[in-house]
Amino acid sequence: MYDFSADSADCARAVEAGLSQYLTATQLSGPGIPADRLVEAMRHGALEGGKRLRPLLVRQAAAIFSVPKEATLSTGLAVEMIHCYSLIHDDLPAMDNDDMRRGRPTVHKAYDDATAILAGDALLTHAFSMLADEACHADPTVRIRLVTELASGAGAGGMVGGQMRDIEGEKGGFTPDEISTMQAMKTGALIRASVRMGAILGGAEPRALSALTAYAEAAGRAFQLADDILDVTATAETMGKATGKDADKNKQTLVARLGVDGAREALAQIVNEAVGCLRTFGPKADGLRATARYFASREK
Amino acid sequence: MYDFSADSADCARAVEAGLSQYLTATQLSGPGIPADRLVEAMRHGALEGGKRLRPLLVRQAAAIFSVPKEATLSTGLAVEMIHCYSLIHDDLPAMDNDDMRRGRPTVHKAYDDATAILAGDALLTHAFSMLADEACHADPTVRIRLVTELASGAGAGGMVGGQMRDIEGEKGGFTPDEISTMQAMKTGALIRASVRMGAILGGAEPRALSALTAYAEAAGRAFQLADDILDVTATAETMGKATGKDADKNKQTLVARLGVDGAREALAQIVNEAVGCLRTFGPKADGLRATARYFASREK
Questions:
Q1: Which of A100, A116, A194 is closest to B117 using CA atoms?
Q2: Distance between CA A170 and CA A176 in Å, rounded?
Q3: ipTM
Q4: Are A245 and A95 contacting, i.e. CB atoms less than 8 angstroms apart?
């Protein structure tokens, strides 16, 4: 019987420990030694953070192919470093201009804008160092596929491109299809990459990879829709960050079109769709099933 | 007889064409299609740019091992995308606050700060896509080594870390050794990575790689010192960007300590040191020799 709370807590602990060990001057050194300030800002932006859902997805997708959880950690750390860099950059005054994140000052408030830009750049860069290291996987062909997958999810046709579309959407006038595309890129692409990277670690055949990709795309939509609903319904205290900002800034979300109740119905339907993609995998996919359901039930 | 002008012009043309072909919505697509604005900003920051010296170094180092120049292009494009992203982010108001670059408005002036941050992030990300693609090199082990090398040169112990140290140095009080370390990281690390990546493409043995690394480190110091001298002596018109800014902002350079004439003597000595590292390679290293000498003679 899969225990979501236990597995996700275990994964979050492993990610926290892994990042804390990796984000040090010794580990990050190259031709030179990083400035203390840069390492501290990277740690501020990456540690004590969130639910670590993306590394959990890597672990859960790999579990279908009986990959031990320890063997998924480097890949999970890499995708989490990408997620954390994106938050640091998104919080900048030039972007969302957020002062608080997870109940603490954002990196640019704790340090300054220049340091936050550089800390984000460094996390992004070292995500790829992490995947390229042989500790990630013994087979260089697998490691290269992971690099391709992560860059594709994080890049112009994925997360960064979605962020650009989101900023353009603030000016108004997006159609429902354009909203979906933007969200699929901004949030969905990295969730998709996480699941696919887990499958790649497990040596998934094309057919299994394709089913897991369909799962991930539905799960990503569920995650984003839940986030949009929470943005409308949650209080700032519960979320540890400013809420209601999407409405303030005229961001285009499905909740604005469907209303909260309509959005909750759509969410339940998308979760069913996600779980339906896993039917051939049996109990080893219970982790992914639980995560899709968690997306619909989470309160922050 | 090696012809520096012809080879560097040929390399610059190939890089321009390669980047122009790669930086399109079709090539950059992932799970989604990039926004036009993002692709345009990436092109603004990467095309019609500079001397393309880093791809030239890749090509010249690989030439020692008889690698055809066409087989070095993807690697050259990757390192150039890293260089271009770093310029876009460095030019931001939160960093150096430059309005002009290569005689044109910087990306954040032509677009806005948010777009410039995202365009830089996307170029950084896709540099790794470029290396991971099998068009870069047939052997995945080589491609993985290139990823490791580029991330190490661009990361916290390299370029980004050097930029952080440079900002800290503006507050004053750096020792001469600290200036050298900062410069070796900020500018030297990517030059070092370029030469080493060329050597890796050529299958260099450890001993050859080590000699080429020593060359690259000296060449990097020459490049930086030449840049510092130019910053003092050149006019804004020749450089196509604001000059004298280093003195304005109390940046720490060797020129401030040695004076222009003393710095020119030191530069000649470093170039000799760089060329001395190549003595075992014969005429196939004439490209790298010419580039080291070019660093000392360039006027912009």
A1: A116
A2: 14
A3: 0.95
A4: no
